[in-house]
Amino acid sequence: MSNFSLHNLNFKLPSVSGEEISLANYSQSSAIIIIFTCNHCPYAIAYEERLIKLAKTYSPKGIPLIAISSNDAKQYPQDSFERMKERAAEKGFNFPYLYDESQEVAKSFGAKRTPHAFILKAESEDMWQILYSGAIDDNYKNEQFVKKSYLSNSLDQLLAQGKLAPWHTESIGCTIKWKM
To answer: What pTM value is reported for the model?
Structure first.
């Protein structure tokens, strides 16, 4: 989403843990990280350990991470809700992993790829400002060779200064698999 004004982005989606998660539940957080991802994309798979590290680093600082899969499971059965549950358990995800079966949440965010990262700040229970949209960092293949940690640097600036000028990079990865 190129427009960084306020948006009504609230949603309620099922989590692999069995509960329904609403974005409104996080309106008291200093910010929130939303990552659109999936089970099958090599880019998304390459970032799984980094997402676990991000959640471990920033959740205790008041910035939780939520992952959302919006891919069409009919085209890509490995992205089904059941397979999401298996993947989350296998990898030990320490963050909610939600299923956007209707794809409405991905559309409302303007998500294009897996992974596609967003940093949101609540202005009210229903209104959110997108502070960052784009790539997690500049090297999906090997975390050791990352030169620019777009997401972490933005989060660190937000924590240190209490604000972040809205900005974006191009997300890299597989396109979201839209329903036909």
So the answer is: 0.95
